[in-house]
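In this supplementary section we document a worked example of the pipeline. Step one takes a protein sequence of length 536 as its only input; no multiple sequence alignment statistics are reported here. Step two produces a three-dimensional model, which step three serialises into structure tokens for compact storage. The input and output of this example are shown verbatim.
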Amino acid sequence: MVRKPVVATISKGGYLQGNVHGRLPARGGKEPPPAAAGQERVVLKKKITLLRGISIIIGTIIGAGIFISPKGVLQNTGSVGMSLSVWTACGILSLFGAYDAELNLQPAVGFCRKVLLICSVPVHSGALSYAELGTSIKKSGGHYTYILEVFGPLLAFVRVWVELLIIRPAATAVISLAFGRYVLEPFFMPCEIPELAIKLITAVGITLVMVLNSMSVSWSARIQIFLTFCKLTAILIIIVPGVIQLIKGQTQHFKDAFSGRDASIMGLPLAFYYGMYAYAGWFYLNFVTEEVENPEKTVPLAICISMVIVTICYVLTNVAYFTTISAEELLLSNAVAVTFAERLLGNFSLAVPIFVALSCFGSMNGGVFAVSRLFYVASREGHLPEILSMIHVRKHTPLPAVIVLHPLTMIMLFSGDLYSLLNFLSFARWFFIGLAVAGLIYLRYKRPDMHRPFKVPLFIPALFSFTCFFMVALSLYSDPFSTGIGFVITLTGVPAYYLFVIWDKKPNWFRRTSDMITRTLQIILEVVPEEDCQKL
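The serialised model returned by step three reads:
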């Protein structure tokens, strides 16, 4: 990282890096000859349609949780009726606001109960605020880009620093482990699956996702559509028998639906936290804005349509469960969908682990597809090594930005406590999401004439940002050890920023070595910087 950071400006992307115009470097470091007239430009193309955008959001939101253990809501509400009410309310709230809880529920357990109380506040902001940001700032990168545009390069670098080194590899490894476990489930039932076998299959799954996203944007999007339909099919396999059960009069578990253990004033917020976690993932389309066709319409539509579909699926799936499984049995089950299928579908229940594995694979694919664009944009802005902002000359994929996750994820997979790392850095996710949304308010006042195809009332982002920052403050108060470690890890990004980005008096040997490595990787990977279409 020897480049000075690019000055942030509101634009549609397409920065020109170096002097290479869509061609591999010549031997000896000489510039290649000018491109022939009519040669195809090397850029990330707009291939994300409305359908593909919806598949990215739904495919990332629906993971393994709804099939395996949707009992967090029931456990903290105390009754069937209240749990279904919370599932419905969380779906509606997610359309207006959502939480960046991502893959780890454990941080909430360690927080003070006061923190969890905040989670039940109707946070009418995240999704719609991101819809406005995505249609106003037509650049990929999501949280990172919005922070860069408003608050400058230091905070943006710190955000991508912890995301690249710890959060994303650990999060990818966690969902991938679920994939590995349920791929092997049918072959080991009812025996215990060896941990080494799970990790080996997980490693194969991670590699397949990386290869798929490296080879073709179109095929990655098509596979995501297919996996999304697989998820919805799996949910229909549960919903349809449940509806049939209702028609047959199997409503005994709905009698006195609101009776049972009373939900405590602290348990209800925790139920909301679990419910909102299940709906997380709506923000991933903002990571690929530059590749979205007509983002002014596609981004808001995709978010709204996706959240409506997910809400209907989640509520009806839980209703279906209660037609066959009592509240007590659901709380005791380690795989609710399997228990449900064994009672109603007989031998067909063996297909449930396969559908769960496909669901996890879809979440892996959607996450890698989106987050690789975050690293690509960060490199384009001078915050990560230059090689990460390059595109394959024929496949037009950000190949280096995709594969950089592979070794980091493998390290996380075979060593270290993944869940502890995510716990330590959970506060950082809340802080940077709140900061990005606060930037929307700043832009309203500093750039009132900025083109805004989609606009939300100011109280929406204000409430969301306040809630995020309040949760960060309370987490520091209630769980100072875990939050403190995460804070220290995050702060390592500050010296790294000045060392790798700002300091421009690096030794000549370092510059030569860096240039040599970049050019060698360019030739091996067949990648070049993205061309600036406006300068050709």
